[in-house]
């Protein structure tokens, strides 16, 4: 059975492309905002990993990560951002993100991060 990844990004093209690239190996669900991601997770949907953008309106990636941790401390999370800063990477790591990818990232880098986070 395929593991399930929730992809969260306010840029729909990033969600769509990432889902297409991951679909041969993983089941994917797309959320276009932090709020939508929380709604999906609160519907008791189980995910093996959440791949999310740092910079989103309303609920940014770091705030979403904090909320996810209050629900599930074990869920694997990978952060991604087009605007890398050391501080944001440290903050994400402190709240339990398994990896921090800078956009644009290549498929090999993404796959390595996912396999590591899922202990595959």
Tell me what the structure shows.
- The chain is an alpha/beta fold and 120 residues long.
- It contains five helices and five strands, in the order βαβαβαβαβα.
- The protein has one domain: 3-Layer(aba) Sandwich (Rossmann fold).
- A five-stranded parallel sheet has the order 2-1-3-4-5, with helices on both faces.
- Strand 3, helix 3 and strand 4 form a beta-alpha-beta unit.
- Helix 2 packs parallel to helix 3.
The end-to-end span amounts to 14 Å
Annotated CATH architecture: 3-Layer(aba) Sandwich
Form type: globular
Strand order of the largest sheet: 2-1-3-4-5
Give me the count of strands. Answer: 5
How much beta, percentage-wise?
15-25%
Low-confidence spans: none
Structural class: alpha/beta
- Element pattern in H and E: EHEHEHEHEH
By CATH's scheme, which homologous superfamily applies? Response regulator
Which fold name is given in CATH as the topology?
Answer: Rossmann fold
Can you give the mean pLDDT? 92
Number of helical elements = 5
CATH class group? Alpha Beta
Could you give a short account of the major beta sheet?
Answer: 5 strands, parallel
Total count of domains: 1
Radius of gyration: 13 Å
Helix content: 40-55%
